[in-house]
Design brief:
7 helices; 4-stranded mixed sheet; inositol-polyphosphate 5-phosphatase; alpha+beta; Deoxyribonuclease I, Chain A; 26% strand; 19 strands
Length: 402
């Protein structure tokens, strides 16, 4: 199965189509979060134009069938998630069906369809926004998931587009290990897994991919990075609450190693997050371990996917807003993992990476996997493409210019 995560804005779209043209997958799945960007009220009107450009592009001309689901109904606080799920089927793939969750049966996929706004009534998917009491600080923002179900030949599986909660404050994340935000994400992800494996429908292998917002254990990573530094606490004059933490070297003229504020993570040496793809810090990436019996992941061999600079001239630089982390992931159930294992006699054919390492695609560097191994039930057919992406602020401007 080719697993592909794609575009963010003009540059990301170009990188995504390069991946499609290179791997020539039979089935492409693109999962997006924040369709229309954070300023969705102003940018949502551009989404339809973007979709039309994508469907008519040269890279997609051999994909004769498509299903596009866009949650654009931002006026509905109860339901709006800003999620978008795109699925493209190559003309050579003859036998593909999609599940109707209301009729509880598979239906053959023909033609191209785009559904938006009231996805709650769309039978070919399940969409949920997390319950309000799940949200940190009781601010009901656009976090949730979309689930679709597919059957290719004799193999059926679920694809889940997910967006979990971020860390609202670096200072709060630093207070304890694991952080309060980690616990909230754990609760929400458990909710999703329980929903997609409950008794309403047959249990199938599933792939979950999107922005999990997984973060490194802040307290432990800071203790590691600043092990020989001394900490200075700066409090706000009016509230006496901690406003800033400054970590200084004990000698060397007490040089500042790290400055930490609510939305500032200014570490003296960004190279630690890039050298050897930052893998020395993977020991602090712990949030997935809670689900070790329910979710699996290929080995990470790429740098943290967030938060990259949004300056188009600094595609490799991180912003000094958060501790870099692997937020964007492709995860799978145990049975789904078994489906993508390659035969022992094949050359290495599984790639789990990100695209556009030197190109600015917004604050997330989207992750890609090219799983070119065959699912055993697909016989000799080359497998399809499953993936994740984001469409952010740049969507409204000069998107996908051919």
């Amino acid at each position: 199965m080719d697993v592909l995560q794609c575009y963010y804005g003009r540059y990301g779209c170009t990188e995504a189509t390069k991946q499609i043209q290179s791997h020539k997958p039979h089935f492409v799945a693109v999962h997006c979060q924040e369709v229309g960007g954070k300023n969705y009220e102003a940018s949502m009107s551009h989404v339809d134009s973007f979709v039309k450009e994508l469907l008519s592009s040269d890279a997609m001309k051999e994909y004769s069938r498509a299903r596009v689901y866009l949650d654009e109904n931002y006026k509905s606080q109860e339901h709006f998630t800003a999620l978008g799920s795109f699925y493209f089927i190559h003309e050579s793939l003859k036998n593909i069906h999609q599940f109707d969750f209301k009729a509880k049966k598979f239906k053959k996929v023909v033609g191209k369809e785009t559904c938006s706004e009231t996805l709650e009534s769309t039978p070919s998917l399940e969409k949920e926004k997390f319950p309000q009491d799940y949200f940190p600080e009781c601010k009901w923002s656009r976090k949730g998931f979309i689930r679709t179900r597919w059957a290719l030949a004799d193999c059926a599986f679920d694809l889940v587009n997910i967006h979990l909660f971020h860390d609202a404050s670096n200072l709060v994340a630093w207070e304890k290990s694991p952080s309060v935000y980690s616990g909230t994400r754990q609760k929400a992800l458990g909710y999703v897994l329980d929903r997609i494996t409950d008794q309403r429908h047959e249990k199938l292998p599933y792939f979950v991919f999107g922005d999990f917002n997984f973060r490194l254990d802040s307290k432990q990573v800071i203790e590691s990075l600043c092990s020989t530094a001394t900490m200075q606490t700066v409090r706000a004059a009016d509230t006496n609450e901690v406003d800033k933490l400054i970590f200084r070297e004990s000698d060397n003229d007490r040089k500042v190693v790290l400055q930490l504020e609510k939305k500032l993570f200014n570490y003296v040496n960004q190279d630690v997050f890039r050298e050897n793809n930052g893998t020395s810090l993977l020991e602090f990436d712990k949030e997935l371990s809670v689900f070790k019996d329910r979710l699996h992941e290929l080995e990470i061999s790429f740098p943290p996917s967030y938060p990259y600079s949004e300056d188009s001239s600094q595609g490799k630089e991180y912003m000094n807003t958060r501790c870099p982390a692997w937020c964007d992931r492709i995860l799978m159930s145990p049975f789904a993992r078994d489906l993508v294992l390659k035969p022992e006699n094949e050359e290495k054919s599984i790639v789990y990476d990100n695209i556009g390492p030197n190109v600015c695609m917004g604050d997330h560097k989207v992750t890609t996997g090219a799983l070119l191994a065959f699912l055993y039930c697909f016989g000799a057919n080359k497998l399809s493409c499953v993936g994740h992406s984001r469409i952010g602020e740049q969507l409204g401007f000069n998107i996908f210019v051919k």
